[in-house]
Amino acid sequence: MEAFTRLDAAAAPLPAPAPSPSPSPSPSSASAPATAVAEAGTVVQAVRFGRHPGFLRMVLESSGRLPAPPRLAPDGRGLTLALDGVGWAAPRRWTGGPAALLTGYEVEGAGGAGRFVLHAAKPILLRHVMRLPPEGNAGHRLVIDLEPADGVP
Predict the structure, then answer these.
(1) Which position among 20, 69, 117, 123 has the lowest Cβ density within 10 Å, counted as fewest Cβ atoms?
(2) What spatial distance separates the first Cα and last Cα of the chain, rounded to whole Å?
(3) pLDDT(1) > 90
(4) pTM confidence score
(5) Which residues make beta-bridge pairs with 81?
């Protein structure tokens, strides 16, 4: 059974985050180049999180295919996703609970050269990444399954 927290454009807007240093992306085995540009007019409309046995699922819903693969931070305590050419209509910042594996995210810039930065309380691993095409009322979805590197939820 999954429980989702949905953060979308209908939620109350949050203030833009103050600039802060964040980890640089590390190389990934994903096939899409990090310099790819999104389909014209692509906008992230919602970010959802779901808890599953042994892992967390994050889904970014968008109007077009997101161009770049997620990249784990060098210390494993988060990931980044390039947003070159992507607009952002979902909340630009989210803070997780005090006991949560994920402590929050923020969007730095957007459109020309922005990026999505997810923070974790301890090192995480990418368990699975998949892109789903539009289906029914759902738009494009980038699905990212994350698990604690130590195996302890």
Answers:
(1) 20
(2) 16
(3) no
(4) 0.74
(5) 116
CB-based burial label for 134 (10 Å; 0-12, 13-18, 19+): middle
Residue 112: the pLDDT is 67
Q: What tokens were used for 84?
A: 């070159």
Residue 79's DSSP bridge partners are: 72, 118
Do residues 7 and 55 lie in contact, with contact meaning Cβ atoms separated by under 8 Å? no
CB 19 within 8 A of CB 41: no
Residue type, 112: G
Q: Are 16 and 93 in contact (CB under 8 A)?
A: yes
For residue 35, give Cα distances in angstroms to 63, 92, 150.
19, 22, 31
**152: CB partners within 8 A, 6+ apart:** none
What is the mean pLDDT of the segment spanning 7-33?
37
Whole-angstrom CA distances from 67 to 5, 34, 75, 85, 142 are: 24, 8, 24, 9, 10
